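Subject: for your reference before the review

Hello V.,

The reviewers asked for a structural picture of the protein, and I figured it would be easier to keep everything in one thread rather than splitting it across files. Below is the amino acid sequence we used in the manuscript, unchanged from the supplementary table.
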Amino acid sequence: MAASRVVVQLEEVTNSCFVVMPFHPLYEAEYEGVIKPAVEEAGLTCVRGDEIYTRQAIVQDIWHSVRKARLVVAELSGRNPNVMYEIGLAHAIGKPIILLTRNEEDVPFDLRALRYVYYDPNNPFWGGDLRSELTRVIKLVLNNPTLATHLGGVEIETTLPAAPTKPIVSNTTPMEPLDFSGVWYTTWLSILREREHRATLVIPAAHGPTFTASMTVTYERGSQQTIVQETLTANFRDSALYLTGVNYTYVEQGMSSSYSLDSFELKPDKKGIALIGKALLRHGVRDVSFTRIQ
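And here is what came back from the structure prediction:
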């Protein structure tokens, strides 16, 4: 009886990191402001799934990128099935995997032997802390000159590139941030209940490209008013302003039992009196326009 055998061609392994995460606007700020800078600080090229997919062969694109990557970073929050599938592909061929999660219960029992980094989005400094920790863990992985076999019966033979010694530095000159300081007002409807939310955003003076803003959100649930004070981190890049909610407190709780943090992707209009873009809400996306009132 002939022996059964499966041969997997790894291709040439490059100093790249394949990032696996849900394709949802809520994770856009995390990728652009935290994961990608952390990977590039460690000297690796950062590749995310939706940056390389073609319409005809998505699975082949994933498989090609996983085989070429030096390691994989996966955002496990929410237990997205596509993320789990891509982790499985990487695990089977011995690729180092770094798991990220904001909920430790989202790490399946059989994956807890892998490296995972927990972060708390209610910590105002979670972005900077996660970025530093992710860079540190990536560098630890790069110190290992071979791929480890995660599963019995799988033999891996490959040549890994020398570990990078310098961060990847963007060749583009960073844009000077516009002056967003002041008080801005907007409204939007929640996705499920179409409940009107009225928000006042306060951006500090002399804020620079990265800063912290505050926003007061008011809405009615039942016959009672709820007022939430939200803290957001802000990054200005590629001529856009990205705001990500990191924590909140109730000024008036009304009938609300919890509040979902908000994120926004905004661009200034030509007159500088409005910020136009999208509100990235828990259950979907709304078009939104902030008007400067002070």
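For the response letter, the relevant points are probably these. The helical segments are 28-41, 49-52, 58-68, 81-92, 126-142. The longest helix spans residues 126-142.

Happy to draft the paragraph if you're swamped.

O.
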